[in-house]
Write a structure and sequence with these properties.
The chain has about 140 residues and is α+β, with helices and mostly antiparallel strands. The chain is built from 3 helices and 5 strands, in the order E-H-H-E-E-H-E-E. It has a 5-stranded antiparallel beta sheet with strand order 1-2-3-5-4, covered by helices on one side. The longest helix is centred in the middle third of the chain and has 21 residues. Pfam families: HATPase_c_2.
Amino acid sequence: MQASYALDAGEGCIGQARRHALAFLERAVHEHRVVVPERARDLTQLVVSELVTNALKYAPGPVLMKLGITTRRMEVTMWDSALAVPVALTSDPARIGRHGLEIVKAVSEYFVIQPDSVGKRITAHIALPDPPSEPSLRTPT
C-alpha cells in the first residue's frame, strides 16, 4: 500500500503530515489487515515530524511525502527542493537543536538521503514487528 501527499509550507503543515501518516496507518490496519504496533505508530509520527520540520526549515517551496507499508516495515519518504544534502550530526548532549536527522537515523532500520536533480529525497524505514524484549538496565530492588 502506498500514498503520496503534497504539503504546502504553511502553518499547520507538520500536524497535517502527522494526520496523513496516522490515517494511512489506520487504512493499512483496517483495509489490509497489517499489524501496526503502537511503537511503530509513534515512531512513524516522530519521523514524519522531524523530516517535515527539516524540509520546511531548509527548503523553499512545497514538500512531498510518500508513505508505503508492507507487513514488515513502514516507509517514509520526504522530497524537498533544497539541493544541499543534510548531514546527521554525531550525538552531542550539549548541542541545543539540530538533532532531527540524528533521531530519525536512530529509530530507523534503514535511512538514506538521495540527491535529486531538483532537490533531494530522504527515506526512512521503520520496522513494524516489535523488536525482541531487551533485559532491563535497571537494578532490581
